C-alpha cells in the first residue's frame, strides 16, 4: 500500500536507531566469538531468502518484504534462541500473502524442506508437517505486531527516473488509470526527474537489492536508500561519472535542506527546473531533492562498508542482480568523489590488502550458528527438548502471557 | 519474561473481553472495554485453529490495511495483541450497520440523511483510494455505524493495493449485487472505479430501501444491470465486447432513472448516473463525487447525531443464528463464507428470502492472478 510514508507503521514503529539494533544483538554477542560474524549472518540469511524466494517465483518486491520481516523479527529475537530456517520459511510465507502472491502452505513447506536440505545448508530437521510453519507464522505476525505493509526503495527509484511507464504490459478496456493523482512525493522535488542511462539505472536497482543484505532497511526510510543508490550509481557509472566531472559544480556546494520530512506539496513550489537542462546537471538534481545530503553521504558510506564486508564473504553461486562486481572496480573512485563532502573517512580506505582478514563461507557461518545455539542451550538448564528452539521459546512466552 | 513479552502482556491487560457478539469467516467478535477507561470496544479474535492451514488471507489483508488506515470514516484498529494462540484485533465498537438501518421499516429517511451517509462513505473511500487501496467489498452490511452516527467503512478482508499498475487481479470480488459489469465480464486489470460502482448501488438502495440490482446469479446480474440501465453500446463502453468473459446477454433499452427514482432531485439523479457509468474510465471518482453539486445543493446533509438509528432492541443479535447456507450459487473457485454459520438474520423487506452471503474466495487457487 502506498500510504503516506510518514503516517505509516513502517516509519512510526520500524525505523530504529543503531543503539536499538545493538541492544537486539546483545544475547547473540554473548555466544559469538567475533561480532563480525553477525554481520555476515545478515548477508547470508538475506541470500537464503532471496534464493528461496526465486524458487517460489516471487517478484523482487515480495523477496524484499520477506527480508524486512526477517530483520524486524530479529530486532526482538536472537539467532541463538531461534531457528532462522523456520523463521525464513515463515517470512516468505507471510510476505507472499502480504504482497498478494500467496503460496499454499503445503507447497511452502515442501519447497523450504527441499531447498534447506541441500548444500550448503544441509538442514535435515526442517519439520514436514504444516502445523509447525503455521505456528511459526503466528509468532512472526505477532512479533511484527501485525504491521505487514512494507515500503521499499524501488517505487521511488522508478518514479524519480520516470521508468513508471513500464507499460509494455497489456491493458484491457476495463483498466483505468489510478483515478486519483499520484500521492504526495515525500522525497521532495516536484518535477525533478533524473535522466539516467539504462545501465546506470540498472546499477542503482542492483545497489538497492544489495542494501537488503544489511540492517539498512531498519535504519533509514526507503526513499533515502533509493536516492543514495542513484547517487552511487551516478558516481560509479563510467560515462555518467565523466559527465559529472565535466560539470562545473562541486559537490561541496550542495545546499542542505533543513528537514527530510517536508511533503512535496510545499517543495514542488520551491523546486527549480534544473532537470530540464539538455545535459543534465546531476549535482543540481540531488541538491533539489528535499532531503539531507549529509545523510545520503552517511548512507553511501554504510553501503560501501557493506560491500567491503561482502568482499570477504564467499558463496559459491553469486546472485546475478547484485552490484557487487561494479562496485569493487570503482570503489576508489567513489572514495575520492563521493565520500569527500562529509569529511568522514570511508571504511574502504582502511581496507589494505595486508590487513584483510579471513573470509566467511555459508558452511562456516552455519557452524558458528550451531555452536551459538548449543552454548545457549547448555546455559538454559531446562531447554532439553529436541524441538526447534524458536517454537519452544515462543511457547514459553505465550504461556507466560496467559 | 523478556521485554517483548512484557510489552504484549501490558497490551493484553489493557483490554477486557466481555461477551461474544458475532462470528465471521475467520474471527470471533467480542464486546469488550478498555480496562482503565471502560471505553466500549470490539475484540476480534482471529481463529488460528490447530495451526492447520496458516492465517486466512482475509485476516492478513484486514490487519495489513487496518494497521495503516486512520480516518474518521474507516473503522479504527485501536490495538493488536496475541494471547496463547490467538491474534486479537481491538476495534472501535460499532452498534449497527447501514443494512440494518435500511431494512428497519420503522425508520424514515430524509434526503438529507441519505446525503450524510453518502458523504461519509465517499470521504472514507476517497481516503482509501488516495492511499492506493481498493476495498472490493462495499455494501451496506460493511458500512458500520457508530453510536454518534458516524459511518465507518469496515471489512477489509478483500482489500488490496493498486499502486503498481498493470498487475493482474482476480475479478471474483465484491458481493454480486454491488459488483460492476467489468468484473462480471472477467476484467483483470481494474481500479478504483470498481468501488465507485458499489457506491452507486448503495446510493440507489438508500433511496429504494431495497437492493437496486439483485441478480440471482452472475449471469443474471448482468441481465439485471442491463435491464435497469440499458445494454451498453460500443460507444457507451468501447472495447467491452473484447473482455475475457464477455457474452451477449440481450438487448435492453435504456430507461430514464427518473422512472424508478420518482422523488429524487436532478442533482441526485445526475450523481447516481455518474456512479453507474459503464465505461470504468468515465465513471466519476470519489474526490470528484464529493465535489458534485449534489453535496452543495439544499438540503444540507443531516448531522450524524440526527441520523435515523435502529431502536435499541432491534440492534445486532447477540449470538449467532445457526442455519444452512445454500452454496449452490457459488461459482468456480468461490466458496461461501461460513458454511454453517449465518452471521445475522437477513430477511428481505417482504420477509421471505435470505440474502446471499458475502462470498469469499479461496485465494490459494487464485495465486497467479490475485
Ligand atoms: N467493530 C465492531 N463492533 C461491533 N460488532 C462487530 C464489530 N465488528 C464485527 N462485529 C460483529 O461481529 C460479527 C462478525 O464480524 P466479522 O467482521 O468477523 O465477520 P462478517 O463481516 O460478518 O463476515 P465475513 O467474515 O464473512 O465477512 C458481525 O456480523 C458483527 O455482528
Ligand atoms: Mg463482513
UniProtKB/TrEMBL annotation, chain A:
GO terms for biological process: regulation of transcription by RNA polymerase II. Residues 246-275, 331-357 are annotated as: Disordered. One of its GO terms (cellular component) is nucleus. Gene3D superfamilies: Cyclin-like. Residues 47-142, 193-305 form the Cyclin-like domain. Keywords: Activator, Cyclin, Nucleus, Repressor, Transcription, Transcription regulation. Residues 332-348 have a biased composition (Polar residues). It is found in: Nucleus. Its main location: nucleus. The keyword Lipid biosynthesis does not apply. GO terms for molecular function: cyclin-dependent protein serine/threonine kinase regulator activity. Belongs to the cyclin family. Cyclin C subfamily. This is Cyclin-like protein. It comes from Suillus placidus.
From TrEMBL, chain B:
The lineage of its organism: Eukaryota, Fungi, Dikarya, Basidiomycota, Agaricomycotina. One of its GO terms (cellular component) is cytoplasm. The keyword Glycoprotein does not apply. ATP binds at residues 21-29, 44-45. It holds the Pfam family Pkinase. Keywords: ATP-binding, Kinase, Nucleotide-binding, Phosphoprotein, Serine/threonine-protein kinase, Transferase. The active site is at 137 (proton acceptor). It is an enzyme of class 2 (transferase). PANTHER family: CELL DIVISION PROTEIN KINASE, CYCLIN-DEPENDENT KINASE 7. GO terms for biological process: positive regulation of transcription elongation by RNA polymerase II. It comes from the Eukaryota. Residues 359-370 have a biased composition (Basic and acidic residues). Its EC number is 2.7.11.23. Residues 322-370 are annotated as: Disordered. Belongs to the protein kinase superfamily. CMGC Ser/Thr protein kinase family. CDC2/CDKX subfamily. One of its GO terms (molecular function) is RNA polymerase II CTD heptapeptide repeat kinase activity. Residues 15-295 form the Protein kinase domain. This is [RNA-polymerase]-subunit kinase.
